[in-house]
Structures are given as C-alpha cells and as structure tokens.
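Good morning,

Both structures are done.
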Amino acid sequence: MVKQNPASAQGWTVRLIPQIPLVILAGVITLAGLARLQQIFNWQGDLLLGLTDGIANFSAVFLGIFIEAAPYLLLGTLASGLVEVFFSAEELVRLLPRGRFLAVGLGGLLGLFFPVCECGSIPLARRLMSKGIPVPVGIAFLLAAPVINPIVIASTFAAFGNTPIFWLRFALTLLIAVGVGLLFLFETDMSRIIRPMNVDLAHSFHLHDEHEPKNSPSSWKGKLKRVMIIAADEFFEMGRFLVIGALLAALMQTVIPQSWLLSLGQGPILSVIVLSLLAVLLSICSTVDSFIALAFSNTFSAGAILAFLVYGPMVDIKATLMFLRVFKRKTVLILIVLPWLFTLVASAAINLWVR
C-alpha cells in the first residue's frame, strides 16, 4: 500500500482553496442562467416562481457588483505591475516630500495620478508600500484614492453639479484619509500594521517561469511581459476576495429589505448612520455611487448623503476582505471604525449646524 505524502496532500489543499471563489462565480452564473430559462419557458408553481425570482435577484446583484468592480481591480493590478517594473524604491521615496506630514498629505492626493476605485487602490497601495513608500502614506492613498481621482470627480459633478455636496465630498474624504494616515505615524514598528506577502497564496495562480532570471529584463518587451505577469498574479490573488465580498454583499442585499433600512433614516444623526451602513451594504463602485446617492437626495439630509459618498468608497464588504490580505486584523478594525467615526461626526455636524 502506497502511503500518501503529507506535504503533497497539503500542497493539493493550498492549490484547491484559491479555486473556491471561481467555483462560486461559475455557480452564480449557472443559477442566473437557470432563472432566466424559467422566465423564458414560464415554468409554473408558486414555490418555484418565488425561488427563481430570489435566485435571479441575487444573481443580478452579485454579477452587477462583480462586473462593475473587476475592471478597476484589473486597472489597479496593472498600475501595480508598472510601479514594480519601472520604478525603484529609491525613485519612489525621492518623489515624496521630506516632511512626514506633507508626505501623508501627498498620499491623499495620489489618486489624481492613479485613477482607481477601492478595488484597484488596494493592490496598488500594497505594491507602493512594498517598494518603500511609508505605510501612513499608503494608508492615506488607500482611503482617499477611490474618491480623489478624475473619474469620480467627473461622475460626482455630473450628478450634483457645482453644489456644496460636490465640494464637501472631496474635502471630507481628503481630511479623513490624511487624518487616519497621520495617526499611523506614531507606530514605530510597521510590521505590526502590515502583513508580509503570503507566498503560498500568491503563488496559487503564479505565472512566473521558474527558470526566469531574477534580474529585471532590460528590453521593453521583457518589461511589459513582466508587468502583465505581475498584474495577472495580483488580479487572481485579490480577485478571490472580490468574488467572496460580492457574494456577501449580494446576500445581504437580498435578505435584508432596503425599505426597512431606509425607514430608519430619520433625524440628523440616525439618517447618517443608516446611509453610511447602507453604503457598506450596497458595496457600489465609487465611479457610479453618486447617481445612487442622487436618488436619496429628496429623502435624506445633506449630511446623510455625504456619509454615503464619503464612507462607502473607503470601506465596503469587498474592500474589507481585501484589507485583510494587506493589513493585520487590528489594523483592519482601525481602518473600518476610525473613518466611520470621523464621517459620522462631520456629517452629523453638517446636519445640525449647516443649513
């Protein structure tokens, strides 16, 4: 009888676990197809109709979130590959101001040069920090980039025009992101904040040639090939968490009635809490969330609308799972709670004192 090598069995486990999100994605697409067939052929039965309607709603929400976010995740991983190949750690550090406070402030504005949403900013921020950018600067970029970028600026202006909500969205986002980043300046041991690259998981979809030389290729063709390989590696690595996050967001949207949440949104403080939590629940990409917020403008206060537009792009379900890939758990908890508290205070103050 041949004994199985435990190391070999463990290797199979490591290889199979990352495939689970792909199976989930394929399963949701299959369910969506079956629900559509039921609608086409008009199969009868109250139970069957209710079940297929629920499946169709869940599948539509899940695929909507995934399809909306996947291109921006790809854009972020491509930017990560470009940073890795074309910029050395010394060059990136030289671009930063010498003052720590100015450097964190610049981190909040880097999204103007890297137009990525929350899904794309996370792998790019990790790459920047691994290349030598200070962690507080990376955190400021991570929180601000989903809003402080040209695409979101244009979409917000299209939705709200030249109004106080338009300007306050970017001012509050920048202040909160930089403020949270500055708090991490007081931590001297950055290994307590950020996780090391998980080699086992990172190699689950590893595309590198084992015989490839360690030195970076000098030709443009070789460099572009390396950019694409890095982008593909990170896309599949972070994409697993995007699939799981979209799954959880779709489940919550399907199970919890939004009308029940919206009925709680009365008052200057409660409305802020409800819309900020609704932003996390919906997990909408920051490039299109302005138009969703516009639909709430006749029902909710300006402070609640701002909470939706400021906190949602910083923290939602799929982004939280990606945070866990980059930061220690305590850091992730801080990145969830602190921006929410700052957003709550600022938005409630606007409701109470600004008319």
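Second structure follows.
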Amino acid sequence: MSNDVENCPAEEFVKLCFADDSGKYKNEDGYRFWKNFAKPELRIDVWEDGCPKIYNYAKSYDALPDPDVNSYNLYEAHIRVWNIQHKKSNNENIQDIKRNGRCRCEIVTQDDKIILGSDSIMSIYWHRTYGNTPQIMKKISEDKTNLLKEIKELQTRLNLFGVEKARIEKKRHYNASYPLYKEFIWYYLQYSNTIGGFMLFPRHDCSINQARGMSDRIQDRFDLTLECIRRMYESGFPTGSNPLFDMSKEDKEYFEMFGSFENYAKFFCLNKSYDGKHNWVTEDCSAVYDLMSENGEDTLSKEGWPTEILHCDYKSEEKIAKWWTFYRNIMSRLDARNQQIAELLSNNSVKDL
C-alpha cells in the first residue's frame, strides 16, 4: 500500500502493517521497521536482568520505530476511517478530523480543537517490565507447544490478508535461524499493527492515555481502560470513580463530545462481534469484556475493581496458561474490530468523504 492512502481501495486498509512505513520521515534505509527487526543483532531471545534485551544493537528506542509516532500511513488511515464515522454519526460537536503536523490528528470542534495521538491497544507485554512480566515472557518463550500453535493461527490471519503479501514479507525480512519466540513476535507484530489495533486519545501532558500506562491497576490493558471510561460516562465524570479518576479538562471535553459511552464505543468500532469472536464491548455497549476471562465472554464487574491484572507467580503453570488466555482474547478483539472497520470501509467509498 502506498502512502497515498486517500485513494487507496477500502479493502486494502485493514491489510497494511502500518509499522512498515515508519522510515518515511527518518533514514529510509536505516529505520525500516521490519528490516531492523530482521537484523541478526536484534536478539529478543536474550534475557538480561530478567528483561528481554531487544534493543541491544542500538542506542535509542528509535531503532524500532513506533508506528504511533512515525507512521504516516497510520494517521492517514485514522483520518479517513474516523471521518467516515463522523459523517455517519452527524455529531454536531465535531466539525472535522484532519491532520495536524506530521503524525497527529486534530478534531475540530465548534468552539476549539483537540489534538489527538494514536496509541496501540494491543499490549501483550512482550517487552514490558510490569511486575513479573519479564519472567512470564521468558517462560512463554520456552513454551514451544503454544508458540507453534499461535504461529499457525497468526499465519492464517495474515493469509486472509493475502497469501502473496505475507509470503513476500517473510522472504524479505524473516531469518530461518530465528528462535521460535522471535518468529512468534514477528507474526504478532505483522498482524497487531493493522488498523484495528490502534485508538485515538487526546495528546497532551498527563493525558488519560499516559495515565492508563502508568497505573498499576490498569497496566495498559485496554479493556480496563474502557471500563474506566464507561464508568466515567455512567457517573458523570466525577473524581474518585475509578483508577483514571483524575481526568484533565482536555480529556473531559473530548469524551463529552460523544455524549455517551454507547456513542463512543460505536464510533470507534468497538462493539460488534463476528463468528464467535468478541469485540471489546457488548453489542449494546452496556458492558466491557474481560480479557482475563477463560471463555472470553465474561464482562468486567460493575462493582469494585478487578484484582487480577498481570502480577502473578510466574512459576505457576496455571498463571502461564492465564497469559495465553489473555493473549488469545486480545487477538479475538483485534479480529472482530478489524472486521467491523472493514465493513465500515466497504460500505463507504472515497468519494463519500
């Protein structure tokens, strides 16, 4: 898919791994996402001080560019998709969604404007340091049975996006000497960087997006973030209602534009399930599905707050199995959301914008 996403056929939208154009505004030869990921020096099977040593060949995080920061195509896709929703919803609080700077979006409202940043909602903690997660991921890296099973599942998902593209990308960037865990992460990143894996949040210091990543009670889980947002709508945005209670003025104005949690969830294609694969919230938007649920169908309690996040005894086989449950649930949400966005795009052509 070219950078000219304005005229890109709708069916191509969900297929693109947006990370792959991250080099556009840097050194084209030195910062391509998959090219760097394929470097022999990038040894994510190396564990140092309990953490995966994934940046050992570079001095900065930019060695693996972040699509949310660097991907031109990702923001062009955000603008196109959510403008379709804006025009369908007839939300009078929003006048337009357009580009602001190189990789930012801007919602133009009747009275002012709100700057938005993209953020992945697909955290599986493969290079994070919450609690015991490094030790958990080390155990996962040794779980050959589940790794092989999920690699095949990811291959199937990517093949649905076009066998030829997946084959060419693997031939270009994949090294047969990779350890199994790195192969798993390679396929995971290929699929998780599709449009259904990203959301928009207000971009400013101390934003709700920053807070959800820093909170020990949320740990960047998007299901818990959505439950916080649902409770805020339900209780009128008071302080103290949940772990993200300290909402800034900018965040409050942004969420109030949608009027209700139902409108917010439907706007961002979070509510339709397909073929037994649940999206993030129930179809009527009354509840948020729990990523830690064994069957993927339980919803988060409307009373209290979930106590099980990711801190656990990583030596326990039961707890390692829980991580696989979490992973499969989050991938199910990505499947359903990608399909909902694809359905939205297929019913709206470029000329409709």
